[in-house]
Amino acid sequence: MHTENVKILIVEDDPDMAELISDLVEAEGWSPTTAKSAEEASVILSRETFHLVLVDHNLPGTSGRAFAQRLRAQTSIGIVMVTAAGSAAERVLGLETAADDYVVKPFEPIELTARIKAVLRRTIPSFKAEKESEREHEAAALQLGDWVVDLKRRRAICTAEPARTLTTAEFALLEILAETPNAPVSRSHILDRLGAESDRYVDRNVDVLVLRLRRKIERNPDLPRHIQTRRGKGYVLHTDEIEIAP
Question: Is this structure's pTM higher than 0.70?
């Protein structure tokens, strides 16, 4: 299945949230359709076929959970619940009743799209095969000024003299930013991705880590070209892709 053929139904009564999710879906090359209620979604599903349904937990009329349960009883379509209810009990209940996955508002755009892709890979074999084929042809490395960053071998090579090296934390930050080049990554997402190391960091320490990485990567750290700040959104990595022989 080609990416552009993926159809996603977004069941969300908040027009701003529905628009945001639609934009994220379209940015991935998928085709979004929106519904404001479970009743409207049922009408749309009766005349169109979709590959995945994003369902808001708190819908007017029939609840999102009840709608997802009914949908699951009728079809094996992928279902992702989107909700502001953040307790572990709510998440577990949502997964046990119907949903394939669960995303809590406010969410990071890359978290939502990653969860959608994971569900599509599980529910659509051809989607999984296509994604695996795409990964085989992805660029093996990134060019950042005087640096070549080999993501597959997890190493960063400085081609300038004197040669410099990256610390484990600096390389981890670079990997996080490189997952979504040209898109902002928030401080909170960076903290979350640092995983077991996150208890040693706070927002300000992320800024310090970015500053340290800039001093090594950028030719002019005061006017960064590759690691840029987006006010209120986080940091963006701009790269030039190159190929490294296997």
Answer: no
